[in-house]
Specification:
It contains eleven helices and 17 strands. Bound molecules: zinc ion (ZN).
C-alpha cells in the first residue's frame, strides 16, 4: 500500500501510441516491456528546436514498432534533437543506438553509465558468461544455475544494441525545454551513476528509477564490481530526497507521477532497514552466502532475469552490513560467506 501522504497525479497513463502532457513542454509516453515490470515510462521535452527524448526501451521489434508509431504520430512535425539516457539498464539504453540511427539525434549520457554500458556491450559471449558464472559461484548459487549462465553468453547484448558516439555530460550541463531549464544530478544506488533531472523553478523532479512510487528500485551490485556498497550510496540519495516538499511532482521511469517524494524516500529507507534486519536475523544462526540471503529477501519463484537482480540486490545488502562493520566475509571453496562479527 502506498503511504497515504503520497498522492498520484490525477491523470491517466498514456495509452499505446499516445502521449500525455505533464507540463506545457513535457510529455509522458508508456511502452510495454516483456518482464514482470511490464512497462517503462519514456518522456519527451518540447524544445525550441524539436523533441528531446528521455530513455528508449530495450532493443526489440516490439519497442521498434512502438517508436515507429510515436515518431509517425504524436512526435511527428518536428525533429528529434537529442536522446537522453538516464542509466545503462537495458530497458533504458537498449534501443538508444537504433533510435539515434533513425532520428540522427545525438545521445546524452553521464560518464559512469556510459562506461558501464560500453563495458557490458564489449564483453564477448564467452567472457560475459564466464564473469556471470564466476559471480554466481562466489554467491553460492547452484551448479546448474552457474552452468546455465556460463552458456548463456552476453545477456546484456540480447537486450541492448550498440551505442554510437555518445555525448557525455556532467552536472554543469543544462537541457533547455520551451518553458524550463533541467539540471542533471548523478547518483549511485540503483545503478552506478544514474541521471535524474530537475526543473527547480517548476518543482519537477524526473527521478527515473531512483524514487519509484510502487516498487522498491532494485539496488544491485554490478558484475564489474560486486564489492561496492551500493546500498550505502542509495541511502545517501534517499537521505537528501527526504527533504523534498510535497509540492514537487516526482516523475518516475515506471508506474505513475506523484506528489510526496519525501514521504516515499522515508518509506524506502525503512524498507531497506527492514531487509538489513532480516539478514542480521538469518546470519544469527551462522554464516550465510549471497544465495541464502537472496532466498531470505525474495521468497517468490525467480525467472533467470530476476535471479540476476535478486542475487545482486542481496549482495548489495550484505556489502552494506560489511561497510557498517557488522559483518565479515570469509571465502571457502570459492564461495563467499558472510558472518556477524
Ligand atoms: Zn533501472
Amino acid at each position: 500500500m502506498p503511504n497515504p501522504s503520497m498522492t498520484p497525479l490525477a491523470i491517466d497513463p498514456p495509452k499505446a501510441g499516445e502521449m500525455v502532457a505533464l507540463a506545457d513542454d513535457l510529455y509522458w509516453m508508456r511502452f510495454t516491456l516483456p518482464f514482470r515490470l511490464n512497462h517503462i515510462n519514456l518522456y519527451a521535452f518540447d524544445t525550441k528546436d524539436g523533441w528531446l527524448l528521455l530513455d528508449c526501451g530495450i532493443q526489440s521489434q516490439a519497442i521498434a514498432d512502438q517508436w515507429q508509431v510515436m515518431l509517425a504520430g504524436p512526435l511527428a512535425g518536428q525533429p528529434v534533437i537529442g536522446i537522453i539516457v538516464s542509466h545503462y539498464h537495458a530497458d533504458h539504453v537498449g534501443y538508444a543506438g537504433a533510435l539515434a540511427a533513425i532520428t540522427g539525434a545525438p545521445i546524452y549520457m553521464g560518464a559512469i553509465e556510459h562506461a558501464q554500458a560500453s563495458w557490458s556491450l564489449a564483453q564477448s559471449d564467452a567472457t560475459y558468461g564466464m564473469i556471470m558464472g564466476n559471480t554466481y559461484a562466489r554467491f553460492g548459487l547452484d551448479g546448474d544455475v552457474i552452468g546455465h549462465v556460463r552458456s548463456q553468453g552476453n545477456y546484456f547484448r540480447k537486450l541492448s544494441g550498440d551505442l554510437p558516439d555518445v555525448t557525455v555530460i556532467d552536472t554543469d550541463h543544462r537541457f533547455h525545454s520551451k518553458a524550463g531549464i533541467w539540471t542533471p544530478r548523478f547518483d549511485t544506488g540503483h545503478s552506478p551513476g544514474h541521471m535524474s533531472l530537475s526543473d527547480h523553478d517548476r518543482k519537477l523532479h524526473i527521478c527515473v528509477d531512483f524514487l519509484l512510487p510502487r516498487i522498491s528500485p532494485n539496488i544491485s551490485v554490478s558484475l564489474r564490481s560486486i564489492e561496492i556498497d551500493m546500498l550505502g550510496h542509495y541511502y545517501s540519495y534517499l537521505d537528501q530526497m527526504r527533504h523534498l516538499t510535497n509540492d514537487w511532482l516526482i516523475i518516475p521511469g515506471h508506474d505513475w507521477p506523484y506528489f510526496g517524494g519525501g514521504v516515499r524516500a522515508v518509506d524506502l529507507i525503512e524498507h531497506h532497514n527492514k531487509r538489513l534486519d532480516l539478514l542480521r536475523g538469518a546470519a544469527a544462526n551462522g554464516p550465510i552466502t549471497t544465495a541464502a540471503a537472496m532466498h531470505v529477501l525474495f521468497t517468490f519463484n525467480l525467472t533467470d532475469h530476476e535471479l540476476f537482480f535478486a542475487s545482486c540486490e542481496a549482495r548489495a545488502h550484505l556489502n552494506h552490513l560489511v561497510a557498517l562493520n557488522e559483518m565479515q566475509i570469509q571465502t571457502e571453496d570459492g564461495i563467499e560467506y558472510f558472518y556477524l562479527g
